[in-house]
Design brief:
320 residues, alpha/beta, Rossmann fold, seven-stranded mixed sheet, ubiquinone, EC 2.1.1.163, transferase, EC 2.1.1.201, UbiE/COQ5_MeTrFase
Length: 320
Amino acid sequence: MKVGFANSTKDANKSNEFLTFPLFAQIPQESLRFFAMLELIFNLPEPTMTEHISDSQPSEKHAENQPHFNPADQQETTHFGFKTVAKEEKQKLVANVFHSVADKYDLMNDLLSFGIHRLWKRFTIDCSGVRKGQKVLDLAGGTGDFTAKFSRLVGQSGEVVLADINDSMLQVEREKLRNLGVVDNVNYVQANAEALPFPDNTFDCVIISFGLRNVTDKDKALRSMYRVLKPGGRLLVLEFSKPILDPLSKAYNFYSFNILPKIGEMVVNDGESYRYLAESIRMHPAQEPLKEMMLQAGFEEVSYYNLTAGIVALHRGYKF
């Protein structure tokens, strides 16, 4: 079984073409034929992003009819899914999403990924290099899947800090881990990834799993993660990405934008939160742009590995 990361641009491109981790990276020919058939049947449409023009930013067509625009008066904006919102508003909107889905977060993960998320996480742990006595930050920790595993790996001489910006998720995480008997070497902190409340050079490993796409200022968050890592420490980013096979990409888009919200509506009575999930995945940087963002934040030897043909990518970078 061959596993590994691309350590150069050449290797990264090769990794994208030849996915060598058979458990969840290779796509059987039968599946490819199935996705191609789906494309023919549904003519799978590409979801489009609705254009949003701010009142304070007139289009060229109407600029001549608008009052003088002062850039200093412009409110900073970002995206919430396909919507354009004020930066300070996004954090509240994302919080509402996770308040809504927290109680059935694990169930929905299993339903929506057909359980494959457990394999992605297992591979991530294998690539973490975490050992006894080390200190790990599990950022945007979901319901504590990684914390439970890392707690055993670091042992009583180590520590895992589970940090999440959402108090509803923290409550679910704490209750779940206590029921599993994970208590002694785990601490819980409500924290914003953009301004982590830890001293410089604190952690041997920082991991953020399916959380970076929800962060308002990703560059700021990456710099914050870099700051709290010890020299020699590593960051692991497990996140939805861009499928590298066209038939799979179109089928995946159809599933994400048409089926996923319906499952959310049936199970948690909240289809809109899962529509946001699909939109946030589409808006998140693909493999190479995210790699470049990590390099710009100061990380070195940044590499990534495509899982399930790029539906998910695992990025890894070091602080030296």
